[in-house]
Amino acid sequence: MTDMIDMNDLKTELIQMVEAANDLSALEAARVAALGKKGKITEQMKGLGKMDPDARKEAGAALNLLKDEIAALIDKQERALKKQALDERLDTEKADVTLSPRPEAKGSIHPISQTMDELVSIFGSMGFKLAEGPDIEDDWHNFTALNFPPGHPAREMHDTFYLPDDPDEQGEAAKKLLRTHTSTVQIRAMQEQGVPIKIVVMGRTYRSDYDITHTPMFHQCEGLVIDKDIHMGHLKGCLMDFARAYFEMDDLPVQFRPSFFPFTEPSAEMDIGCSRKDGGLKIGAGDDWLEILGCGMVHPNVIKNCGLDPDEYQGFAWGLGVERIAMLKYGIPDLRTFFESDVRWLEHYGFDPLDRPNRATK
Ligand code: DAH
Q1: Rounded to an integer, what distance in angstroms lies between the CA atom of residue 31 and that of residue 49?
Q2: Domain segments of the chain: what residues?
Q3: Into which CATH architecture does domain 111-361 fall?
Q4: Average pLDDT of 99-125?
Q5: Which atom of ligand 1 lies nearest, measured to the CA of 264?
Q6: Cα(329)–Cα(244) distance, integer angstroms
Q7: Mind listing the pLDDT tens digit for each residue in 275-288?
Q8: Which residues line ligand 1 (CB under 6 A)?
Q9: 222 has which bridge partners?
Q10: Terminal CA-CA length for the chain
């Protein structure tokens, strides 16, 4: 094949072949037939050597051009076929979004996360905003500002984990520790956020303790309300409503017992009614009481320490152990098991991620 007429015939033939390919495997066959080692264009290329120089130059250039054209046409055809295949799949394959998820490999929500979500949901429905603070605190936020004077015996009750002093800070701010309670966030809120305040805090707390009801890391839920004219009646109403919502018992008996915390005056502990028979505990009406939280009216010294005037602002606060109330509601006997990451325990006590209880569903 040495003249341009033959070249045109070849071109027409190859174009027809590529355009006739109506799926990807036919197109691949066409590519091999045109450009493969034994393909039509390659065969012609092999013949160039026998030509005289002028004809070879002309035919070589024409063949290269044809090769590029056919390669570009194959690319174009390939894109068109792929798009067509995708369109067909999109038309025929339908995802049924109403199908339930596959049962295998289902995770579960840890009872601590579940309980904290329930607490946020209950206090959130009463208008509390979620607040947080750092796990690494200093002596002032954890103790002094909360009216624990230096050397006060109540400090010893906390079995604090102390960290090395911070060389960039002075005095009490340099004395770093892992917070022993979330009451530190009361101080931060009063100092940083301004009044009025209505917050609920969820967080990790740390004490050097380990037995059936204590782990070195545990969780607390703290609440703080600061405004003008806040009194003990607000505290009682709020915490009674909380306990009845959390334990899902409208007639749950509740009592407040006098207690002591340095940062509240008066201080109280709240008990819920229960009965203890044959070694078992049943929450609800009964002849016994069970303590679930500490609370009180914020001590005027604490309000003063945060730069507010206690004659103008008062408030109430509470603190409760998240593990403890999770154990009570869900019948978990040993606090340490919360953090052992035993999959069988999680399967037993965990919650279905697609069935989260909240204030709307309860
Ligand atoms: N911070 C206390 C503790 O960890 C609990 C507590 C008691 C918090 C009374 C409060 C409160 O806000 O008013 O033992």
Answers
A1: 24
A2: 4-92, 111-361
A3: 2-Layer Sandwich (3.30)
A4: 88
A5: 13
A6: 12
A7: 998 888 999 988 99
A8: 181, 183, 222, 261, 264, 294-296, 317-319
A9: 201, 319
A10: 86
